[in-house]
Amino acid sequence: MPPAPAVTSVRLSSVRPRPVEWLWPGWLPLGKFCDLSGDPGLSKSTLLLDLAARVSSHGVMPDGTQGSAGGVCIMSAEDGLEDTIQPRLRAAGADLAKVGFFEAYNQAPLVVPDHLERIEVRLRDYDARLLIIDPLVAFLAQARSDQDVRKCLHPVKLLAERLRCTVLWLRHLSKRGGPKAIYRGSGHVSIIGAARSGLVVGVDPNDPELRVVAHAKSNLAPKQRSLTYRLEQVEEFGCCRIVWGERSECSADDLCDGLSRKDRQERDEAQSKLDAAVEFLRATLKDRPHVVEELRREATILGLSWHAMRRAVKIVRVTTSYPHQTASHKHEWTLAEQGPSSV
User: Fold this and answer.
1) What is the pLDDT, as a whole number, of residue 261?
2) What are 21-35's pLDDT values in tens digits?
3) Bridge partners of residue 108, in order along the sequence
4) What is the pLDDT of residues 219-243, one digit of tens each?
């Protein structure tokens, strides 16, 4: 039986610490996995090309911070090179000599990690600081389980770290419900688990013409304040480009919530009124039963709606005692753990 291969190890006392490097300070760490997710029709690909143009030229990022500049490589399965990708890059001010497009390998689609050695050669050719994969599912080898995904991405992770090249992939949002943005990206949850930064784009709840990019996940720095953007037609190149706007208070969860800010405020106000009604019932019924009519009058004085009170009854677990059971000969409410009032 051949000997088992040696397990390599590193004594931590020999490791020289170094600070995190950034492609886009606070947003996209250099040499790491990053995720961008959103519904169709939100100009996600155009946004990616805007970032590519910035990296290939001056490195100044949408929020005005100085990021890294260098080569960019693009893997795209959905947009045409001549009529879409190249014009959008020109409109965004890219240095096209520093941008490479991966088309195929031996006339077959590229697959990660099967063709990773070939991809590495091209990344080195361009001295790439950014690799865009649009969308990830088009280039990722079949990965149905957490273990499959991690096996596919691990060699890519090592490559990204070795070349100091950020890998930024695009995903669509899944149709499963729930407002938690971090779980809404399509595919296995281990995909966002592998990313060190996760971004979500969505429609501004208060302006349907405005888009917002927000931080859903950030492992290496505090989450950054969201940024707004819109599209601007550039007649010279026959396409649109991204125009960045003000910062936004919308979070990634807000963008996935599906409610306008007004709707969320109304929901939050209703919840606040319900919480107040629950607190009122618990405090009032703590020591003894109370006549329902009296409770209703007191609630009205305090500004509590009867609708909120009826909902609160189910949460507090109130029992109703009927006139023939009570000394007051009126309906009374009692905390369930106290039992019904005696006659």
Assistant:
1) 53
2) 999 999 999 999 999
3) 105
4) 999 999 999 999 999 999 999 999 9
Parse the chain into domains and list their residue ranges: 19-257, 261-338
The confidence score (pLDDT) of residue 267 equals 67
Distance CA 227, CA 242 (A): 12
> In 95-171, which ranges are continuous DSSP H helix?
116-125, 146-163
Give the residue among 169, 147, 137, 162 at the shortest CA–CA distance from 51.
169
| pLDDT at residue number 341 | 38
pLDDT in tens, 138-194: 998 877 788 888 999 999 999 999 999 999 999 998 876 555 888 888 888 899 999
DSSP state of 140: B
Secondary structure class of 119 (helix, strand, coil): helix
Q: Which of 124, 18, 128, 27 is nearest to 69 (CA)?
A: 128
Stronger pLDDT, 338 or 233, i.e. the higher one:
233
How far from chain centre, in Å, is Cα 294?
49
Closest CA to 230 of 42, 15, 4: 42
Q: Are 242 and 48 in contact (CB under 8 A)?
A: no
- The third-level CATH classification (topology) of the domain covering 19-257 is Rossmann fold (3.40.50)
Contact 252, 301 (CB under 8 A): no
User: Contact 206/265 with Cβ under 8 angstroms?
Assistant: no
Contacts of 100 (CB under 8 A, 6+ apart): 71, 72, 73, 74, 122, 125, 126, 128
Please say if the pLDDT value at position 284 is more than 80. Answer: yes
Q: How far is CA 215 from the centre of its chain?
A: 6
Of 85, 68, 147, 162, nearest to 117 by C-alpha is: 162
Q: Which of 30, 47, 29, 50 is nearest to 38 (CA)?
A: 47
| Cα 233 from Cα 98, distance rounded (Å) | 24
pLDDT, residue 1, reads 60
Q: CA 328, CA 322: separation in Å to the nearest integer?
A: 10
Copy the structure tokens of residue 138.
């088009």
Which of 301, 322, 326, 340 minimizes the C-alpha distance to 309? 301
CB burial of residue 282 (10 Å; 0-12, 13-18, 19+)? middle
In the structure encoding, which two tokens stand for residue 139, read together? 């280039």
